[in-house]
Amino acid sequence: MKAFVTEAGVLIPKELLQGVSEVDIRKVDHCLLVVPVEEVDPILQLGDSPVTSDVTDASTRHDLYAGFQNQQ
């Protein structure tokens, strides 16, 4: 699909944005990206489904358990 650029910008047909109420427009290198904005920020959902484990100090020793030990 091609669209003409006017003094006001570019019109994106509504049928391409079906079900979308807000978009984020980004310029990446030589591309313009029109990305639908998530209704709920996924970062706010962290911890909704925590993993259970026998480890009781995972938050303080995360690097050790994740394999990021100091490699000298």
Radius of gyration: 22 Å
Backbone structural class = mainly beta
Largest sheet: 2 strands, antiparallel
Which sequence of strands runs across the widest sheet? Answer: 1-2
What string, H for helix and E for strand, traces the elements in order?
Answer: EEH
Can you describe this structure?
The protein has 72 residues and is mainly β. It has one helix at 62-66; strands at 23-28, 31-36. The chain has a domain at 12-39. The protein starts with 22 loop residues before the first strand and ends in a 6-residue tail after the last helix. The model has no long low-confidence stretch (mean pLDDT 86).
Structure keywords:
two-stranded antiparallel sheet, 72 residues, elongated, 1 helix, mainly beta
Write the layout of secondary structure elements.
Layout (H helix, E strand, L loop, with lengths): L22 E6 L2 E6 L25 H5 L6
Antiparallel strand pairs: 1-2
Question: How would you sum up this structure in a few lines?
Answer:
With 72 residues, this protein is mainly beta. It has one helix at 62-66, and strands at 23-28, 31-36. The model has no long low-confidence stretch (mean pLDDT 86).
